[in-house]
Design a protein that fits this description.
Keywords: DNA-binding, Transcription, Transcription regulation. By secondary structure, the protein is mainly alpha-helical. The chain contains 9 helices and no strands. α7 crosses α8 (150-162).
Length: 194
């Protein structure tokens, strides 16, 4: 029970910080402002986190952690590469729309992350791209896909989906589900063998 309470309190701090980092930027958001958002004290924040930069890392790594976890699960699943690619693209698009604020904060605030934190997020991004590239390799070897360079294609696909954070607005013309479906169809057309 104690661990659950600690996790709940840490999560509340992270959510409040994420909102403020998104609205005002990392440099303009103080630990006092995070505490005020939660109607608590600075000491409360520091009893759960060593520094504001640690909170920034937790916020920024959310998208990469979820995306890699999902990609690893899909890569272990049985199924032909076309189905795996479709699942991966739909899932990744949903992660980006779900974690839109954390992705935007990472893009804007990467310069404020500790080198070890940047390295960890980039390690996850590379691992995700490797899984995507592996699915493309397998599909290519089976004659399902036709791409010139699977690693470059994987990076282009993940970059395209990552960038949706900058323009996607839930509740407008396109829902998160429709975006995932549209993206999956587009990627399948990009890589399918003629």
């Amino acid at each position: 029970m104690r661990d659950e309470v600690i996790a709940f309190k840490r999560d509340r701090i992270v959510k409040a910080a994420e909102k403020l980092f998104y609205q005002h930027g990392y440099d303009s958001t103080t630990v006092d402002a995070i505490a005020a958002e939660l109607k608590t004290t600075k000491q409360f924040i520091y009893s759960y986190f060593d520094s504001k930069s640690e909170i920034l890392f937790i916020v920024c790594q959310a998208g990469s952690a979820l995306a890699l976890e999902m990609a690893e699960r899909i890569s272990r699943s049985e199924g032909e590469p076309g189905k795996q690619l479709d699942e991966l693209i739909r899932g990744f698009a949903r992660v980006i729309t779900q974690e839109k604020m954390s992705v935007a904060i990472f893009i804007r605030e990467e310069k404020n992350l500790e080198p070890a934190h940047i390295a960890e997020i980039n390690r996850r991004r590379r691992a995700f791209d490797q899984i995507l590239s592996g699915i493309l390799d397998e599909g290519q070897s089976k004659g399902l896909f036709q791409v010139d360079d699977t690693q470059t294609t994987a990076r282009l696909i993940s970059g395209m989906i990552n960038f949706t954070y900058s323009w996607f607005k839930p509740g407008r013309k396109l829902s998160a589900q429709a975006l995932a479906e549209t993206t999956a169809r587009l990627v399948q057309r990009m890589v399918r063998a003629s």
